[in-house]
Amino acid sequence: MARVLARSGVKIGLESVSGVYETPTQVIKLAENSQPKVSFDNVELPNFGYYGGSKEIITIADWGQMSVDITTCLYKNLDFYKNLFAICNLKSEIDADGNTVFTPHTHSDKTASVDLILPDRKFKAQGAKANWSMSGKVGDKLEMKFALQSSFIEEVKGDFESDITDIKAGEALIIRKLGGMTINGVDVNLSEFSFDMGCDVQYEKFTNIGEFHISDYDPRLTIKMRLERGGESGFNEFKLGTTMSFEAIFRDAEQNDIFKLVIPKCKIAKTPEFTDQDGIYVIEREFIALSDQGDDNFKFIYMDN
């Protein structure tokens, strides 16, 4: 049993020079193991001078990509997410009430170095960018996912058991403690919801195969809500192209407001769908977050209590 590899660890750190590796130190609290996913570019060379036209494949060893999917929970500790949000092209500002407000920043140059650690090896990468999503349902945890794309450096063999560590990240927020969800200021009865920033992380092969950037983002919100007698299902809003606003507040066990997701302007992106949940009609709606003046599609706010 001692030979079985059953744990993993991830460390990240913002880079002083974008795309240049610096040993990361921030430990990420994982909800599930992160898998090493490394791929290399290759070129196929046809050879019709040989019987059957057998091809030769050349692997471009210095053009490796490493993908790391980080699954964690929504915790009260804001410091836990600052580096992750930065490489998702989110900028932070302090508002008049002292709250930290995260909003999209399309042209951010923030990148991170990443160590994906197994007990007997370490995968190192640089220039990481990421996509952020969150989801949950009533009676369960709020799950946060960060899908990282980076430039692979090397795999190092050794004894890294002691490098797989944990940190305290504060209370995990549960959807039963959700402060409320509203559409146009009207309370909705949540069943499930998910939000995806929709970052499109691309290799910058045009100039430098080792660089990543986010070429675009497409924030989407999907909610499932109970269909109340006489309530709106979303069909008319979709048909008429009506714009709406959306707000969700996430509270701790003491009912303090901790995080808030605000989408000032959104439209239903596809025809609403009916589903059944424990014998109750539930309507599923998918929204696209719209911009008004540049990068203002949404705000994710940490309220400093």
Description:
The model has no long low-confidence stretch (mean pLDDT 86). This protein is mainly beta and 305 residues long. The strands form two sheets. The protein has an 18-stranded antiparallel sheet that branches. The chain has two helices and 20 strands.
Helix/strand structural class: mainly beta
Please report the number of helical segments. Answer: 2
Largest sheet: number of strands, sense, barrel closure? 18 strands, antiparallel
Uncertain stretches: none
Strand residues, percent: over 45%
Order of helices and strands: EEEEHEEEEEEEEEEEHEEEEE
Radius of gyration: 22 Å
- Global shape: globular
Distance between the termini: 47 Å
Q: Could you estimate the helical fraction of the residues in percent?
A: under 10%
**Strand runs, count:** 20
Describe the protein's topology.
Blueprint: E1 9-14, E2 26-27, E3 37-45, E4 56-73, H1 82-87, E5 90-94, E6 100-104, E7 112-118, E8 121-137, E9 143-157, E10 178-183, E11 186-187, E12 190-196, E13 199-203, E14 212-217, E15 220-226, H2 235-240, E16 243-251, E17 257-268, E18 273-277, E19 280-289, E20 299-302
Antiparallel strand pairs: 1-2, 1-7, 3-4, 4-9, 5-6, 6-20, 7-8, 8-9, 8-12, 10-11, 10-16, 12-15, 13-14, 15-19, 16-17, 17-19, 17-20, 18-19
Outline:
By secondary structure, the chain is mainly beta.
Notable traits:
single chain, 305 residues, mainly beta, 18-stranded antiparallel β-sheet, two-stranded antiparallel sheet, 2 helices, 51% strand, globular
